[in-house]
């Protein structure tokens, strides 16, 4: 027989709620970063998508640097998510400036 870990409904609900919290915080961070930097792209949902991508990028970069994670939401750090969202929006801003061409 296969060995299966028995998980209670409470643990499943806790994991789902934790994932919901992390997703909401990442999307909010991306929305705020997109509004602050004004990437120039008018695509619906770009801010929340940048936040979700920033969660991954920021967490990877933070772990690579070995820095303190700071406050946590749902077992994920907030500071790397915000920094990652800002980095993703900054790259999008540079791409938008490159597409715009020279301004003189």
Describe the fold and architecture.
With 104 residues, the chain is mostly helical. It is built from three helices and two strands, in the order ααββα. β1 (72-73) and β2 (76-77) form a beta hairpin. The protein is elongated, with a radius of gyration of 17 Å. It starts with 8 loop residues before the first helix and ends with a helix. The mean pLDDT is 86.
Task: Give the SSE layout.
Layout: H1 9-37, H2 46-65, E1 72-73, E2 76-77, H3 78-100
Antiparallel strand pairs: 1-2
Short description:
69% of the residues lie in helices and 4% in strands. The protein has 104 residues and is mainly alpha-helical.
Number of domains: 1
Broad shape: elongated
- Main sheet summary: 2 strands, antiparallel
Structural Rg:
17 Å
Question: Which oligomerization state do the chains in this entry correspond to?
Answer: single chain
Helix percentage: 55-70%
Portion of residues in beta strands equals: under 5%
Which structural class fits the helix and strand makeup?
mainly alpha
Q: What's the SSE pattern?
A: HHEEH
Please give the number of β-strands.
2
C-alpha end-to-end distance: 73 Å
| Strands side by side in the biggest sheet | 1-2
Uncertain segments are none
How large is the count of helical segments? 3
Average the pLDDT over all residues and give the rounded result: 86
């Amino acid at each position: 027989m296969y060995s299966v870990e028995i998980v209670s409904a409470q643990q499943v609900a806790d994991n789902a709620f934790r994932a919901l919290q992390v997703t909401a915080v990442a999307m909010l961070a991306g929305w705020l970063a997109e509004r602050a930097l004004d990437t120039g792209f008018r695509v619906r949902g770009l801010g929340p998508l940048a936040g979700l991508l920033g969660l991954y990028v920021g967490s990877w970069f933070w772990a690579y640097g070995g820095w303190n994670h700071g406050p946590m939401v749902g077992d994920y750090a907030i500071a790397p998510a915000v920094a990652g969202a800002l980095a993703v929006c900054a790259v999008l801003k540079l791409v938008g400036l490159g597409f715009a061409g020279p301004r003189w």
